[in-house]
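User: Here's a structure from my thesis project, written as structure tokens. My advisor, Dr. K., wants to see whether a designed sequence matches the one we expressed. Can you design one independently, without my sequence as a hint?
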């Protein structure tokens, strides 16, 4: 990606009705969700046409395990990438309005009429989704591909129906499970477009996205977008509330094997294990990348044009828990120029893009309902070593485009012909799902000091009603300029503390601000960080 905007890879957010989502607490010790269900799958066989697969469903069955995908990824890495098969040009040339009329037939849902609690629905290729994806089902340790027929999709005309059925492959998949009420299977996770996926929990609507891998984000040569070329979906037993999806990632520079242990519910969690095989040295690579949108809010980064909505964003802050147990909070910004920030760490304990404000009053948008968008928190489950969390903020004038990216960047990148394994737990929660009883930054604002001329920032912390201000120390710094004044007052409306910091940038164009509250020399609240930029108030 250069400084250009990230067009959302999930047009399905707008094509299909946004649904809500919920779950049992994830057992992170679980390394395998068994598949013992024996009821046969009601799926279409591979089409027997001369142009496509001419083997029967029985003949294409093969033994499958997680190692199968790892072996495939390792083998692929030994040769140059082969371009993914493309949809027919007539499907690619469809406009948005035509593509949105193509819908998967719910009576064709995989496992839709079986005791299994989960069902699978599929996306047709076309419009922006030109790359074809192979999707397989795993039952009792045996894998076989899902075929397609003229009954798979409802389409606007017979010509489109014929083209889709002849293609025999899909553009992605979505999983359904009863997370909001017992008698309805809600869509709760989608895999569609490159290596993008997104999920929701109970009562949420789709917002930010995740990716399998990010390569060369914001580099001058342009970003490389790895793609999930093939999926395997393990059939859960009827008693299970979790499902496993495997994916094969391919790209010009790297291949990878992914295992997603997915636990839908009150907080949907995804346990990810990825094994990567670089084809070349990768100095700029992002692990567990998150992609979101931030346009403006009314306190820190006001809209450049009149807007009746006080805030427009899918995420409002980057939260980090360092290897030294320091909690960091960095409010997001919609800058006028591309901004890249790096937060060095060793063995990080977590990071995520957070949507903290959860009431309609904060957004006033009856259609987008930004107050119900999820946060996403990444918790590493193995040692990620030394590196940094990288935050990329891209100028944007359209809320339909993602303009924020956050990921973990290993210090030395990834080296050719070496194998790397990263494991992490994703939580699609309403807020940061750790340190729930600790103070949090609930509001950040900036302006000019009252009766003065210097910039001033105001930071509100909650859950600090028992703090004696006389025992409080404000440890503040600026990278450019000088601090003129800091002070704190009690905040009776959030049972916390409001901190003021006034500073003089001394003609600097930008300055890194840092505020940390301490008692007896120890931090008692998240460290607040922000990049102040002249003229962007």
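Assistant: Designed independently from the structure alone:
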């Amino acid at each position: 990606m250069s400084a250009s905007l990230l067009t959302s890879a999930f047009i399905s957010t707008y094509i299909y009705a946004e649904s809500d989502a919920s779950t049992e607490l994830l057992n992170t010790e679980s390394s395998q969700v068994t598949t013992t269900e024996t009821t046969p799958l009601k799926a279409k066989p591979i089409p027997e046409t001369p142009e496509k697969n001419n083997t029967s469903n029985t003949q294409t069955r093969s033994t499958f395990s997680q190692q199968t995908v790892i072996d495939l990824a390792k083998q692929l890495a030994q040769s140059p990438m082969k371009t993914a098969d493309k949809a027919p040009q007539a499907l690619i040339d469809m406009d948005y309005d035509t593509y949105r009329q193509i819908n998967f037939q719910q009576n064709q849902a995989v496992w839709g009429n079986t005791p299994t609690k989960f069902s699978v629905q599929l996306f047709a290729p076309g419009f922006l989704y030109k790359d074809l994806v192979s999707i397989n089902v795993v039952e009792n340790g045996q894998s076989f591909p899902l075929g397609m027929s003229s009954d798979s999709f409802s389409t606007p005309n017979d010509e489109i129906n014929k083209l889709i059925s002849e293609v025999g492959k899909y553009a992605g998949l979505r999983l359904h499970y009863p997370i909001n009420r017992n008698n309805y299977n809600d869509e709760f996770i989608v895999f569609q477009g490159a290596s993008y996926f997104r999920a929701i929990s109970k009562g949420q609507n789709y917002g930010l996205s995740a990716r399998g891998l990010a390569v060369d984000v914001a580099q001058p040569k342009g970003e490389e977008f790895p793609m999930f070329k093939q999926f395997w979906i393990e059939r859960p037993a009827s008693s299970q509330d979790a499902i496993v999806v495997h994916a094969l990632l391919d790209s010009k520079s790297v291949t990878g094997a992914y295992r997603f242990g997915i636990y839908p519910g009150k907080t949907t969690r995804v346990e990810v294990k990825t094994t990567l095989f670089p084809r070349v040295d990768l100095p700029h690579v992002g692990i567990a990348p998150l992609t979101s949108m931030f346009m403006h809010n009314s306190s820190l980064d006001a809209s450049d044009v009149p807007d009746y909505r006080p805030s427009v964003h899918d995420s409002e802050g980057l939260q980090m828990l360092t290897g030294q147990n320091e909690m960091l909070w960095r409010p997001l910004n919609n800058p006028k120029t591309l901004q890249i920030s790096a937060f060095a760490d060793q063995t990080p304990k977590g990071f995520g893009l957070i949507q903290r404000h959860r009431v309609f009053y904060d957004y006033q948008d009856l259609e987008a309902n930004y107050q119900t968008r999820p946060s996403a928190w990444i918790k590493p489950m193995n040692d990620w070593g030394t590196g940094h969390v990288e935050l990329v903020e891209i100028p944007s004038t359209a809320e339909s485009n993602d303009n924020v990216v956050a990921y973990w960047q290993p210090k030395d990148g990834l080296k050719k012909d070496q194998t790397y394994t990263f494991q992490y737990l994703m939580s699609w929660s309403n807020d940061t799902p750790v340190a729930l009883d600790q103070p949090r930054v609930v509001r950040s604002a900036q302006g000019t000091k009252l009766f003065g001329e210097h910039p001033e920032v105001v930071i509100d912390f909650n859950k600090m009603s028992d703090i004696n201000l006389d025992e409080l120390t404000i440890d503040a710094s600026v990278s450019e300029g000088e601090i003129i004044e800091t002070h704190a007052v009690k905040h009776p409306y959030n049972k916390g503390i409001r901190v003021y910091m006034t500073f003089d940038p001394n003609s600097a164009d930008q300055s890194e601000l840092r505020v940390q509250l301490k008692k007896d020399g120890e931090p008692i609240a998240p460290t607040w960080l922000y990049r102040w930029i002249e003229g962007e108030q």
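When you compare it with your expressed construct, this may help: The longest helix spans residues 66-76.
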